[in-house]
Specification:
248 residues; alpha+beta; six-stranded mixed sheet; 6 helices; 6 strands; 18% helix; 39% strand
Length: 248
């Protein structure tokens, strides 16, 4: 049996929970690199929503006949910087962050319980006849002890320096621009994805049509990857399930 029919048979026999955990997708990608998503309109994504921000009261611009200046224009000549929906602006991302978190806990508990019945409507005599070791005064005797301890330490250091082009998806009433940028890079069998959204001011866009990431309001940056290396570094779905369900 060749590899492809064998994989199809294995996928058909897998239970439903494996499909929900993404195992079917991983099995279908054996021997192939992760697929890249096609270029598309970011506003068609199910997670995209129009942005609503507090707006100042609109001020009507005065109209002057035969004037050389146009209301709302930022320059006498045409401006090549992003100003309208669909325009492209380059975002320069330069992030450097680090942090350390350490925690330790310990707990212990001991307990014992004893219960007996001296008189119970004469049933104590019946209990004594069941066995020589059965006594009404010591029917139940329990004891228990437990202890737990845990230590944890997190050390992280991130540095992301790159530039990517984003698209203006919305022009707010005060002139600010809502942008969204997506980038995917596939190296061998590892797919690295970067997603950025935020609100920028047209005045902060440089003459080269670029803007720094620290000039973006409501900035959201997602940087991660999928592939063989990420799978090795991620705990298996069974271990994740046990970590959630087990009380100890």
């Amino acid at each position: 049996m060749t590899r492809r029919p064998f994989l199809l048979l294995l996928v058909a026999l897998l239970p439903g929970p494996l499909s929900a955990c993404g195992a079917l997708t991983q099995l279908s990608e054996i021997g192939r690199p992760p697929p890249m998503t096609p270029t598309q309109n970011p506003t068609l994504s199910p997670t995209w929503r129009p942005v609503t921000m507090p707006m100042p009261s609109p001020v009507p611009a005065p109209t002057e006949p035969a004037s050389l200046w146009r209301s709302g224009s930022r320059g006498f000549f045409a401006d090549q910087r992003a100003t309208r929906v669909g325009d492209i602006v380059t975002v320069l991302v330069n992030m450097s962050d680090s942090g350390t978190l350490k925690n330790a806990t310990s707990a212990s508990r001991n307990g014992s319980n004893a219960m007996g019945i001296t008189n119970l409507f004469g049933f104590e005599n019946v209990l004594s006849r069941i066995g020589k070791n059965v006594g009404p005064a010591s029917l139940v005797n329990t004891n228990g002890s437990g202890s737990s301890g845990g230590t944890g330490q997190i050390q992280r250091s991130e540095a992301v320096t790159l530039s990517l082009a984003g698209t203006v998806t919305q022009v707010l009433p005060n002139g600010n621009l809502v942008i969204a940028a997506n980038q995917q890079v596939r190296v061998n069998s590892e797919l690295v994805s970067l997603h950025l959204t935020g609100v920028i001011r047209p005045e902060d866009i440089s003459s080269t049509n670029t803007i720094n990431d620290d000039q973006i309001a409501e900035e959201r940056i997602s940087y991660g990857g999928t592939g063989q290396l990420t799978q090795v570094q991620t705990p298996s779905w069974g271990q994740q399930l046990l970590n959630i369900l087990l009380p100890f």
